[in-house]
Amino acid sequence: MDQTRNQPSAGKFWSWFIPVGRQVGGWAFALNRVTAIGLTFYLFLHLAVLSLLAKGPDGYNGFLALTENPIIKFGEWAVVAAVFLHGLNGIRIILTSFGVGVTRQKQLFYGFTVVAVLIILIFTIRMY
Amino acid sequence: MTENWKITLRVYRQKENQTSHFDDFQMDVNPDEYVLDAVERAWAFHDRTICFRHACHHSTCGACGMRVNGVEKLTCITLIRDVTRNGATLKVEPLRNFPVVSDLAVDMGVFYRKMEAVGARAVLPVTEAEIEDPPSKWDAEDSQYIRLSDCIECGLCMSACPIMATTPEYLGPAPLAAAQDQGLRRKPELLSVVDCEDGVWRCHSAFECTAVCPSFVEPARRIMNLRVQVVDMRLRKLFGKA
């Protein structure tokens, strides 16, 4: 190991996702990164699927049949879960960024996460 | 009767141009001793080549910051009882995001230069300090009193911050807190230092800095307040009131 290993570098982004030694705010930070990456991936996937429309009804209908596949269905569920976890945590960050509830950021995180989980639960029941 | 624990002190070792490894030291400790006591005992009775920084032993100098079982701690005030248990391992590593000089000692030069860049104050007038129950109005003679700054420049916040790990140019929690401490209205020249890509807007609200700060500086709260100050200054410029 060289002396530079302990120094900051862009390549260390993976350390964002290691929860060991982190605390509530750090876990919230990691959760927001993971859901953001997932949603970005979904956005491109979504555009690719929409491009099937250019191939006419047959191309798109063929894809729609795939949505009954359990893996695709789980993917849709994951998108909804990521939207609510990321969106509600984002509201917490907006509030604290401008001085609202800064000293209560942990409670805000717990509160918004409970709301997100409840919404995801309702969605899960309706979906399955 | 004094309680005695048997622990394994696992110490990060790395000398110049050598690969890193951990050395284990079995020792009996009083769980109400501090982690720094255990490190000093390893140095005194097991291996005199262990290199670490320490000075005051009462959380004033900020020299003995290390990662204890993965979490940033000021080892002179961290009870062994609070971070391990009887028969378990106590792992000590150098702070993250600083070059390792030797073993547990890191080079804090970049951090100190950032503190200088924002004109961090070691002492400040009591009238400008954040204190509990301040008087509604300060008397003129109160301005003669000064107090030590809360920040002891231990660097724990710089080590815990996930953004510091990936962005060396980021000013970091302690320097931004030091800028907030002075106030942009009082020191408008700080605006260009903090209102930039690697300044106050680079913080991603992980709040790890506040979680590990041993001196109740609350860097995250100060960074958020600094953002409000920056927006206030921008609006004043926009409407010609600066």
CATH superfamily of chain A: Fumarate reductase/succinate dehydrogenase, transmembrane subunit
- Structural class of chain B comes to alpha+beta
Instruction: Tell me the strand percentage band of chain B.
Output: 15-25%
Tell me what the CATH architecture of the largest domain in chain B is. Answer: Roll
Compute the separation of the termini of chain B in Å: 66 Å
Measured distance between first and last alpha carbons of chain A: 51 Å
N to C succession of SSEs of chain B: EEHEEHEEEHEEHHHHHH
Return the CATH class of chain A: Mainly Alpha
By DSSP, the count of extended strands of chain A is: 0
Rg on CA atoms of chain B, Å: 20 Å
- How many helices of chain B does DSSP assign? 9
Q: Could you say which overall geometry of chain B the principal axes of the C-alpha atoms support?
A: elongated
CATH architecture call of chain A? Up-down Bundle
The topology string of helices and strands of chain A comes to HHHH
The oligomeric state of the chains shown is heterodimer
In the CATH scheme, the class of the largest domain in chain B would be Alpha Beta
The greatest interface here is:
A-B, 34 and 39 residues
Q: What do the pLDDT scores of chain A average to?
A: 90
The count of helical stretches of chain A stands at: 4
The CATH homologous superfamily of the largest domain in chain B is termed: Beta-grasp domain
